[in-house]
Amino acid sequence: MTEYQNNKPRPAETLRDGNIKATIWRNFGEKGAYYRTQFSRTYQDSNGNYHETSTFNGADILKIGRLAERAYDIEHKLRQQDREAQKEQQS
């Protein structure tokens, strides 16, 4: 089930490497839970306000690749946990 915090959906997992973030979201469809990963970069504007963007420069690409590998492994683990929980509910 999707968890909520302050009436907003809460990610299943968040990974960071400096200002680059991979957010793993748990969603539900006809066949049950599935996962999607969103990549973003946090930056601060001239007024000191923080923002997120989905555009990246060359130096960010390596970080995204490393986060993508970690996100893949975590999604795999989460899917496995979902299958085990589903088996327990059916027992």
Your description of this structure?
The chain is 36% helix and 40% strand. It has 91 residues and is of the alpha+beta class. The chain has one domain (4-90). The strands form 2 sheets. The protein has a 4-stranded antiparallel β-sheet, with helices on one face. β1 (4-5) and β2 form a beta hairpin. The protein is elongated, with a radius of gyration of 16 Å. The two termini are 19 Å apart.
Which features does this protein show?
two-stranded antiparallel ribbon, 36% helix, 91 residues, alpha+beta, 6 strands
How are the elements arranged and paired?
Layout: E1 4-5, E2 8-9, E3 13-17, E4 20-29, E5 32-44, E6 50-53, H1 58-90
Antiparallel strand pairs: 1-2, 3-4, 4-5, 5-6
The count of DSSP E runs of length 2 or more, i.e. the number of strands, is 6
Rg value: 16 Å
Our measurement of the CA-to-CA distance between the termini, rounded to an integer number of angstroms, reads 19 Å
The low-pLDDT segments are none
Structural domain count? 1
Describe the sheet with the most strands.
4 strands, antiparallel
Structural class: alpha+beta
Q: Determine the number of helices (DSSP H or I, runs of at least 4 residues).
A: 1
Query: Roughly how much helix do the residues carry, as a percent range?
Result: 25-40%
